[in-house]
Amino acid sequence: MSLPLHAQSRPVPEAAVLGGLPPVREVSAAEVAARVSGGRRLVVLDDDPTGTQTVSDIPVLTSWSVEDLRWALRQDSSAFFVLTNTRSLSPADAAARNREVVRALREASAAEGIGYVLASRGDSTLRGHFPLETDVLAEELGGVDGVVLVPAYIEAGRLTVNSHHWMRTAEGLLPVGESEFARDATFGYRRSSLPEWVEEKTDGRVSADEVLRITLDDLRGGGPLHTARLLSSLSGGRTAVIDAVCDDDLRVLALALAEAEENGTRLLYRVGPSFVRARAGQAARTPLTPAELRPLRGDAPHGLVVVGSHVALTTRQLDRLRERGGIAEYELDVALLLDEERRDAHIAEVATAAAGALDSADAVIRTSRVLVTGADADDSLAISRRVSAALVEAVRQVNATRRPAFVVAKGGITSSDTATHGLEIRRAWARGTLLPGIVSLWEPVDGPAAGIPYIVFAGNVGGPDALADAADLLRSA
Helices 91-112 and 66-74, interaxial angle, to 10°? Predict the structure, then answer.
Protein backbone atom coordinates (compact mmCIF):
# COMPACT_ATOMS: atom_id res chain seq x y z
CA MET A 1 0.00 0.00 0.00
CA SER A 2 1.08 3.60 -0.41
CA LEU A 3 -0.05 6.58 1.61
CA PRO A 4 0.47 10.29 0.80
CA LEU A 5 2.82 10.70 3.76
CA HIS A 6 3.63 14.32 3.04
CA ALA A 7 -0.06 15.08 3.63
CA GLN A 8 -0.40 12.90 6.75
CA SER A 9 -0.97 14.96 9.89
CA ARG A 10 -1.89 12.37 12.52
CA PRO A 11 -0.84 8.82 13.41
CA VAL A 12 -2.70 6.14 11.50
CA PRO A 13 -3.82 2.74 12.82
CA GLU A 14 -1.09 0.12 12.52
CA ALA A 15 -3.43 -2.11 10.53
CA ALA A 16 -3.55 0.52 7.79
CA VAL A 17 0.22 0.21 7.35
CA LEU A 18 0.96 -3.38 8.35
CA GLY A 19 -2.20 -5.10 7.15
CA GLY A 20 -1.90 -7.31 4.08
CA LEU A 21 1.88 -7.66 4.16
CA PRO A 22 3.47 -10.87 2.83
CA PRO A 23 3.97 -13.58 5.45
CA VAL A 24 7.21 -13.41 7.40
CA ARG A 25 10.07 -15.53 6.04
CA GLU A 26 11.61 -17.03 9.17
CA VAL A 27 15.39 -17.04 9.43
CA SER A 28 17.17 -17.97 12.66
CA ALA A 29 20.00 -15.98 14.17
CA ALA A 30 22.00 -19.21 14.19
CA GLU A 31 21.71 -19.45 10.40
CA VAL A 32 23.09 -15.93 9.99
CA ALA A 33 25.85 -16.61 12.56
CA ALA A 34 26.94 -19.69 10.63
CA ARG A 35 26.88 -17.78 7.33
CA VAL A 36 29.07 -14.90 8.57
CA SER A 37 31.38 -17.02 10.73
CA GLY A 38 34.98 -16.68 9.64
CA GLY A 39 34.12 -13.82 7.30
CA ARG A 40 34.88 -10.16 7.51
CA ARG A 41 34.29 -8.48 10.87
CA LEU A 42 31.41 -6.02 11.09
CA VAL A 43 32.81 -2.72 12.38
CA VAL A 44 30.11 -0.27 13.45
CA LEU A 45 31.10 3.37 13.51
CA ASP A 46 28.48 4.66 15.92
CA ASP A 47 27.65 8.35 15.71
CA ASP A 48 26.47 8.19 19.31
CA PRO A 49 26.66 5.35 21.84
CA THR A 50 23.04 4.23 21.74
CA GLY A 51 23.55 1.84 18.81
CA THR A 52 24.65 -0.87 21.25
CA GLN A 53 21.16 -1.14 22.73
CA THR A 54 20.11 -4.21 20.73
CA VAL A 55 23.18 -6.42 21.19
CA SER A 56 24.92 -8.40 23.93
CA ASP A 57 28.53 -9.37 24.63
CA ILE A 58 30.03 -7.19 21.90
CA PRO A 59 33.16 -5.05 22.36
CA VAL A 60 32.89 -1.26 22.38
CA LEU A 61 35.71 1.22 21.82
CA THR A 62 35.59 4.91 22.62
CA SER A 63 39.11 5.31 21.27
CA TRP A 64 40.41 4.26 17.86
CA SER A 65 44.14 3.96 18.22
CA VAL A 66 45.59 1.14 16.15
CA GLU A 67 46.23 -0.82 19.34
CA ASP A 68 42.64 -0.38 20.57
CA LEU A 69 41.32 -1.55 17.20
CA ARG A 70 43.67 -4.54 17.20
CA TRP A 71 42.34 -5.46 20.66
CA ALA A 72 38.77 -5.38 19.35
CA LEU A 73 39.67 -7.45 16.27
CA ARG A 74 41.23 -10.09 18.52
CA GLN A 75 38.07 -10.57 20.57
CA ASP A 76 35.81 -13.56 19.92
CA SER A 77 32.95 -11.56 18.41
CA SER A 78 31.46 -11.18 14.94
CA ALA A 79 31.20 -7.40 15.36
CA PHE A 80 32.39 -4.48 17.43
CA PHE A 81 31.48 -0.83 17.90
CA VAL A 82 33.69 2.23 17.60
CA LEU A 83 32.04 5.18 19.30
CA THR A 84 32.83 8.14 17.03
CA ASN A 85 30.21 10.50 18.53
CA THR A 86 30.10 12.36 15.22
CA ARG A 87 26.47 13.40 15.65
CA SER A 88 27.73 16.00 18.12
CA LEU A 89 30.39 17.35 15.73
CA SER A 90 30.39 19.89 12.95
CA PRO A 91 30.34 18.46 9.42
CA ALA A 92 34.06 19.16 8.92
CA ASP A 93 35.01 17.54 12.22
CA ALA A 94 32.72 14.57 11.59
CA ALA A 95 34.35 13.99 8.21
CA ALA A 96 37.83 14.21 9.70
CA ARG A 97 36.99 11.76 12.48
CA ASN A 98 35.58 9.18 10.06
CA ARG A 99 38.76 9.40 8.00
CA GLU A 100 40.92 9.02 11.10
CA VAL A 101 39.06 5.91 12.27
CA VAL A 102 39.13 4.16 8.91
CA ARG A 103 42.81 4.83 8.39
CA ALA A 104 43.65 3.38 11.80
CA LEU A 105 41.31 0.44 11.12
CA ARG A 106 43.05 -0.26 7.82
CA GLU A 107 46.37 -0.53 9.66
CA ALA A 108 44.94 -2.67 12.46
CA SER A 109 43.21 -4.98 9.98
CA ALA A 110 46.45 -5.55 8.08
CA ALA A 111 48.35 -6.24 11.31
CA GLU A 112 45.80 -8.80 12.52
CA GLY A 113 45.05 -10.30 9.10
CA ILE A 114 41.30 -9.82 9.61
CA GLY A 115 39.05 -8.18 7.01
CA TYR A 116 36.14 -5.91 7.82
CA VAL A 117 32.94 -4.39 6.48
CA LEU A 118 31.79 -0.97 7.65
CA ALA A 119 28.44 0.10 9.06
CA SER A 120 27.84 3.79 9.70
CA ARG A 121 25.29 3.72 12.51
CA GLY A 122 22.85 6.63 12.44
CA ASP A 123 19.64 7.45 14.23
CA SER A 124 16.48 5.43 13.58
CA THR A 125 14.61 8.73 13.38
CA LEU A 126 16.95 9.75 10.54
CA ARG A 127 19.06 12.34 12.33
CA GLY A 128 22.80 12.54 11.73
CA HIS A 129 25.43 13.45 9.14
CA PHE A 130 24.01 11.75 6.06
CA PRO A 131 25.21 11.63 3.30
CA LEU A 132 28.42 13.19 4.60
CA GLU A 133 29.57 10.14 6.56
CA THR A 134 28.86 7.54 3.91
CA ASP A 135 30.44 9.80 1.27
CA VAL A 136 33.63 10.06 3.34
CA LEU A 137 33.73 6.36 4.16
CA ALA A 138 33.18 5.39 0.54
CA GLU A 139 36.05 7.63 -0.48
CA GLU A 140 38.34 6.14 2.18
CA LEU A 141 37.42 2.62 1.05
CA GLY A 142 38.34 3.52 -2.52
CA GLY A 143 34.76 3.55 -3.73
CA VAL A 144 31.85 1.19 -3.14
CA ASP A 145 29.18 -0.29 -5.37
CA GLY A 146 26.32 0.61 -3.08
CA VAL A 147 25.21 2.29 0.13
CA VAL A 148 22.58 0.24 1.95
CA LEU A 149 20.22 2.33 4.10
CA VAL A 150 18.44 0.35 6.86
CA PRO A 151 17.13 2.72 9.58
CA ALA A 152 14.70 0.27 11.24
CA TYR A 153 14.73 -0.12 15.01
CA ILE A 154 12.27 -2.90 15.75
CA GLU A 155 11.93 -2.66 19.55
CA ALA A 156 11.41 1.10 19.45
CA GLY A 157 8.75 0.82 16.74
CA ARG A 158 10.75 2.47 13.92
CA LEU A 159 9.56 0.45 10.92
CA THR A 160 10.00 0.73 7.16
CA VAL A 161 7.20 -0.40 4.84
CA ASN A 162 7.11 0.19 1.09
CA SER A 163 10.17 2.42 1.51
CA HIS A 164 8.33 4.73 3.94
CA HIS A 165 9.70 5.08 7.46
CA TRP A 166 7.35 5.14 10.47
CA MET A 167 7.53 5.48 14.23
CA ARG A 168 5.12 3.86 16.65
CA THR A 169 3.24 6.13 19.04
CA ALA A 170 0.45 5.49 21.53
CA GLU A 171 -2.05 6.65 18.88
CA GLY A 172 -0.67 4.58 15.99
CA LEU A 173 2.09 4.84 13.40
CA LEU A 174 3.39 8.30 12.58
CA PRO A 175 5.51 9.12 9.51
CA VAL A 176 8.91 10.13 10.87
CA GLY A 177 8.84 13.32 8.83
CA GLU A 178 5.88 14.41 10.97
CA SER A 179 7.65 13.69 14.29
CA GLU A 180 9.42 16.01 16.72
CA PHE A 181 12.71 14.45 15.62
CA ALA A 182 12.22 15.74 12.07
CA ARG A 183 12.24 19.27 13.53
CA ASP A 184 15.72 18.77 15.01
CA ALA A 185 17.59 22.09 15.02
CA THR A 186 20.66 20.55 13.39
CA PHE A 187 19.46 17.53 11.42
CA GLY A 188 15.86 18.38 10.53
CA TYR A 189 14.08 17.07 7.44
CA ARG A 190 10.60 16.81 5.90
CA ARG A 191 10.30 13.53 4.01
CA SER A 192 9.21 10.15 5.34
CA SER A 193 9.62 8.32 2.03
CA LEU A 194 13.22 7.12 2.19
CA PRO A 195 13.97 7.69 -1.51
CA GLU A 196 12.59 11.23 -1.17
CA TRP A 197 14.52 11.66 2.08
CA VAL A 198 17.74 10.67 0.30
CA GLU A 199 16.98 13.24 -2.41
CA GLU A 200 16.27 15.87 0.26
CA LYS A 201 19.43 15.17 2.28
CA THR A 202 21.67 15.07 -0.80
CA ASP A 203 20.19 18.37 -2.03
CA GLY A 204 19.06 16.64 -5.22
CA ARG A 205 22.41 15.08 -6.05
CA VAL A 206 20.65 11.70 -5.80
CA SER A 207 17.12 11.77 -7.14
CA ALA A 208 14.44 9.61 -5.53
CA ASP A 209 14.03 7.74 -8.81
CA GLU A 210 17.66 6.60 -8.71
CA VAL A 211 17.31 4.88 -5.32
CA LEU A 212 16.92 1.08 -5.33
CA ARG A 213 13.91 0.04 -3.25
CA ILE A 214 14.09 -3.39 -1.59
CA THR A 215 10.67 -4.06 -0.13
CA LEU A 216 9.06 -6.71 2.02
CA ASP A 217 7.87 -8.37 -1.19
CA ASP A 218 11.53 -8.85 -2.08
CA LEU A 219 12.70 -9.95 1.38
CA ARG A 220 9.77 -12.19 2.25
CA GLY A 221 8.60 -13.29 -1.17
CA GLY A 222 11.88 -13.43 -3.04
CA GLY A 223 14.14 -14.35 -0.13
CA PRO A 224 17.91 -14.07 0.35
CA LEU A 225 19.06 -15.06 -3.15
CA HIS A 226 16.59 -12.76 -4.90
CA THR A 227 17.56 -9.92 -2.58
CA ALA A 228 21.26 -10.66 -3.15
CA ARG A 229 20.73 -10.31 -6.90
CA LEU A 230 19.15 -6.89 -6.34
CA LEU A 231 22.05 -5.82 -4.14
CA SER A 232 24.54 -7.12 -6.71
CA SER A 233 22.99 -4.79 -9.29
CA LEU A 234 24.27 -1.77 -7.38
CA SER A 235 27.17 0.16 -8.89
CA GLY A 236 28.79 3.57 -8.65
CA GLY A 237 27.80 4.06 -4.99
CA ARG A 238 24.05 3.87 -5.69
CA THR A 239 21.81 3.98 -2.61
CA ALA A 240 19.43 1.15 -1.70
CA VAL A 241 16.69 1.55 0.93
CA ILE A 242 15.46 -1.52 2.79
CA ASP A 243 12.10 -2.36 4.36
CA ALA A 244 11.99 -4.04 7.78
CA VAL A 245 9.21 -4.75 10.25
CA CYS A 246 10.76 -7.59 12.28
CA ASP A 247 14.11 -9.23 12.97
CA ASP A 248 13.45 -11.94 10.39
CA ASP A 249 13.34 -9.30 7.65
CA LEU A 250 16.77 -8.07 8.74
CA ARG A 251 18.16 -11.60 8.91
CA VAL A 252 17.01 -12.25 5.34
CA LEU A 253 18.87 -9.07 4.45
CA ALA A 254 21.98 -10.24 6.35
CA LEU A 255 22.07 -13.47 4.34
CA ALA A 256 21.58 -11.53 1.12
CA LEU A 257 24.39 -9.13 1.97
CA ALA A 258 26.75 -12.00 2.71
CA GLU A 259 25.89 -13.59 -0.63
CA ALA A 260 26.30 -10.38 -2.62
CA GLU A 261 29.57 -9.48 -0.92
CA GLU A 262 30.96 -12.97 -1.39
CA ASN A 263 30.33 -12.51 -5.10
CA GLY A 264 32.33 -9.30 -5.16
CA THR A 265 29.82 -6.49 -4.53
CA ARG A 266 31.35 -3.81 -2.32
CA LEU A 267 28.78 -2.40 0.08
CA LEU A 268 28.69 0.20 2.82
CA TYR A 269 25.88 0.25 5.38
CA ARG A 270 24.03 3.20 6.95
CA VAL A 271 21.87 1.61 9.61
CA GLY A 272 19.76 1.85 12.73
CA PRO A 273 20.39 -0.32 15.81
CA SER A 274 18.44 -3.45 14.84
CA PHE A 275 20.51 -4.19 11.74
CA VAL A 276 23.65 -4.71 13.82
CA ARG A 277 22.12 -7.52 15.85
CA ALA A 278 20.83 -9.26 12.74
CA ARG A 279 24.09 -8.93 10.79
CA ALA A 280 26.10 -10.10 13.82
CA GLY A 281 24.01 -13.29 13.99
CA GLN A 282 22.52 -12.54 17.40
CA ALA A 283 18.99 -13.22 18.56
CA ALA A 284 17.08 -10.80 20.74
CA ARG A 285 18.00 -11.38 24.37
CA THR A 286 15.85 -10.88 27.44
CA PRO A 287 16.88 -7.99 29.70
CA LEU A 288 19.59 -8.49 32.27
CA THR A 289 18.42 -9.77 35.65
CA PRO A 290 19.32 -8.47 39.12
CA ALA A 291 21.49 -11.58 39.61
CA GLU A 292 23.45 -10.76 36.44
CA LEU A 293 23.83 -7.15 37.52
CA ARG A 294 24.93 -7.87 41.09
CA PRO A 295 28.66 -8.50 40.38
CA LEU A 296 28.86 -5.07 38.72
CA ARG A 297 28.79 -2.22 41.18
CA GLY A 298 30.63 0.89 42.31
CA ASP A 299 31.46 1.77 45.90
CA ALA A 300 28.59 4.07 46.90
CA PRO A 301 25.22 2.73 48.05
CA HIS A 302 23.40 4.63 45.31
CA GLY A 303 23.79 5.54 41.65
CA LEU A 304 24.11 8.60 39.45
CA VAL A 305 21.65 9.57 36.71
CA VAL A 306 22.80 12.18 34.18
CA VAL A 307 20.13 13.78 31.96
CA GLY A 308 21.09 15.90 28.97
CA SER A 309 18.45 15.04 26.38
CA HIS A 310 15.79 17.69 25.79
CA VAL A 311 13.21 15.74 23.80
CA ALA A 312 9.72 15.75 25.31
CA LEU A 313 9.88 12.00 26.00
CA THR A 314 12.91 12.43 28.26
CA THR A 315 11.13 15.13 30.25
CA ARG A 316 8.12 12.84 30.76
CA GLN A 317 10.43 10.01 31.86
CA LEU A 318 12.18 12.29 34.33
CA ASP A 319 8.79 13.29 35.76
CA ARG A 320 7.95 9.62 36.38
CA LEU A 321 11.30 9.01 38.05
CA ARG A 322 10.53 11.89 40.44
CA GLU A 323 7.13 10.39 41.21
CA ARG A 324 8.72 7.07 42.24
CA GLY A 325 10.97 8.90 44.72
CA GLY A 326 14.37 7.94 46.08
CA ILE A 327 16.30 10.62 44.19
CA ALA A 328 18.12 13.84 44.98
CA GLU A 329 17.99 16.19 41.99
CA TYR A 330 20.47 18.88 40.93
CA GLU A 331 20.20 21.27 38.00
CA LEU A 332 23.00 22.60 35.83
CA ASP A 333 21.64 25.96 34.77
CA VAL A 334 22.41 26.48 31.07
CA ALA A 335 22.57 30.26 31.49
CA LEU A 336 25.32 29.84 34.11
CA LEU A 337 27.12 27.27 31.95
CA LEU A 338 27.37 29.83 29.15
CA ASP A 339 28.77 32.44 31.58
CA GLU A 340 32.58 32.03 31.62
CA GLU A 341 33.00 33.66 35.02
CA ARG A 342 30.44 31.52 36.85
CA ARG A 343 30.61 28.24 34.92
CA ASP A 344 33.34 26.36 36.87
CA ALA A 345 32.02 27.25 40.31
CA HIS A 346 28.49 26.20 39.33
CA ILE A 347 29.68 22.80 38.05
CA ALA A 348 31.75 22.19 41.20
CA GLU A 349 28.84 23.11 43.47
CA VAL A 350 26.49 20.68 41.70
CA ALA A 351 29.06 17.87 41.64
CA THR A 352 29.87 18.22 45.35
CA ALA A 353 26.21 18.10 46.30
CA ALA A 354 25.51 15.09 44.06
CA ALA A 355 28.48 13.13 45.41
CA GLY A 356 27.33 13.79 48.95
CA ALA A 357 23.83 12.55 48.16
CA LEU A 358 25.01 9.10 47.04
CA ASP A 359 24.94 7.80 50.61
CA SER A 360 21.18 8.25 50.89
CA ALA A 361 19.65 8.52 47.39
CA ASP A 362 20.26 8.19 43.68
CA ALA A 363 21.62 11.54 42.50
CA VAL A 364 20.17 13.08 39.34
CA ILE A 365 22.16 15.77 37.56
CA ARG A 366 20.19 17.38 34.77
CA THR A 367 20.39 20.40 32.53
CA SER A 368 17.69 23.05 32.48
CA ARG A 369 14.61 21.66 30.75
CA VAL A 370 14.23 24.78 28.60
CA LEU A 371 16.23 24.17 25.43
CA VAL A 372 18.61 26.99 24.52
CA THR A 373 19.26 27.23 20.79
CA GLY A 374 21.62 29.39 18.78
CA ALA A 375 21.20 31.63 15.77
CA ASP A 376 21.69 28.73 13.35
CA ALA A 377 22.34 24.97 13.27
CA ASP A 378 26.08 25.29 13.90
CA ASP A 379 25.53 27.67 16.81
CA SER A 380 22.93 25.34 18.34
CA LEU A 381 25.36 22.43 18.06
CA ALA A 382 28.09 24.48 19.74
CA ILE A 383 25.77 25.26 22.68
CA SER A 384 24.87 21.58 22.97
CA ARG A 385 28.54 20.63 23.11
CA ARG A 386 29.24 23.24 25.79
CA VAL A 387 26.36 22.02 27.96
CA SER A 388 27.40 18.40 27.45
CA ALA A 389 30.96 19.27 28.48
CA ALA A 390 29.62 20.66 31.75
CA LEU A 391 27.65 17.49 32.46
CA VAL A 392 30.76 15.45 31.74
CA GLU A 393 32.89 17.52 34.09
CA ALA A 394 30.28 17.13 36.83
CA VAL A 395 30.31 13.35 36.37
CA ARG A 396 34.12 13.28 36.45
CA GLN A 397 34.14 15.22 39.72
CA VAL A 398 31.47 13.01 41.29
CA ASN A 399 33.29 9.79 40.34
CA ALA A 400 36.60 11.16 41.63
CA THR A 401 34.95 11.76 45.00
CA ARG A 402 32.73 8.68 45.29
CA ARG A 403 32.32 5.89 42.72
CA PRO A 404 28.54 5.56 42.16
CA ALA A 405 26.88 2.16 42.33
CA PHE A 406 25.91 2.73 38.67
CA VAL A 407 25.81 5.56 36.15
CA VAL A 408 22.86 6.16 33.81
CA ALA A 409 23.39 8.66 30.98
CA LYS A 410 20.23 9.91 29.25
CA GLY A 411 20.70 11.30 25.76
CA GLY A 412 22.99 10.48 22.84
CA ILE A 413 25.61 13.21 23.12
CA THR A 414 25.39 13.01 26.91
CA SER A 415 26.07 9.28 27.04
CA SER A 416 28.94 9.50 24.58
CA ASP A 417 30.74 12.32 26.34
CA THR A 418 30.08 10.85 29.78
CA ALA A 419 31.64 7.54 28.74
CA THR A 420 34.64 9.01 26.98
CA HIS A 421 35.52 11.98 29.16
CA GLY A 422 33.50 11.79 32.38
CA LEU A 423 34.36 8.14 33.13
CA GLU A 424 37.38 7.82 30.81
CA ILE A 425 36.22 4.52 29.31
CA ARG A 426 38.36 3.33 26.37
CA ARG A 427 37.33 -0.32 26.11
CA ALA A 428 34.14 -1.95 27.31
CA TRP A 429 31.73 -4.79 26.60
CA ALA A 430 28.09 -4.15 25.79
CA ARG A 431 26.63 -6.85 28.03
CA GLY A 432 22.93 -6.53 27.23
CA THR A 433 19.92 -4.39 28.01
CA LEU A 434 17.96 -3.30 31.06
CA LEU A 435 14.72 -3.02 29.09
CA PRO A 436 13.84 -5.02 25.95
CA GLY A 437 16.21 -3.81 23.25
CA ILE A 438 16.35 -0.16 24.23
CA VAL A 439 18.72 0.53 27.14
CA SER A 440 22.27 -0.80 26.87
CA LEU A 441 24.53 -1.74 29.77
CA TRP A 442 28.29 -1.51 29.30
CA GLU A 443 30.91 -3.14 31.48
CA PRO A 444 34.01 -0.89 31.37
CA VAL A 445 37.22 -2.90 31.40
CA ASP A 446 39.63 -0.05 32.06
CA GLY A 447 39.95 3.38 33.63
CA PRO A 448 38.39 4.88 36.78
CA ALA A 449 34.96 3.42 35.94
CA ALA A 450 36.10 -0.22 35.64
CA GLY A 451 33.42 -2.43 37.14
CA ILE A 452 30.76 0.28 37.39
CA PRO A 453 27.66 -0.54 35.29
CA TYR A 454 27.34 2.19 32.67
CA ILE A 455 23.86 2.52 31.20
CA VAL A 456 23.43 4.14 27.79
CA PHE A 457 19.87 5.46 27.52
CA ALA A 458 18.89 7.26 24.30
CA GLY A 459 16.72 10.33 24.57
CA ASN A 460 14.09 9.13 22.11
CA VAL A 461 13.23 5.60 23.29
CA GLY A 462 10.99 3.90 25.83
CA GLY A 463 7.67 4.74 27.38
CA PRO A 464 7.05 7.31 30.13
CA ASP A 465 8.04 4.81 32.86
CA ALA A 466 11.22 3.52 31.17
CA LEU A 467 13.74 5.60 33.12
CA ALA A 468 12.07 4.83 36.45
CA ASP A 469 11.87 1.11 35.57
CA ALA A 470 15.56 1.03 34.70
CA ALA A 471 16.43 2.74 37.98
CA ASP A 472 14.30 0.25 39.94
CA LEU A 473 16.08 -2.67 38.28
CA LEU A 474 19.49 -1.23 39.11
CA ARG A 475 18.46 -0.59 42.70
CA SER A 476 17.22 -4.17 43.05
CA ALA A 477 20.74 -5.41 42.22
Answer: 60
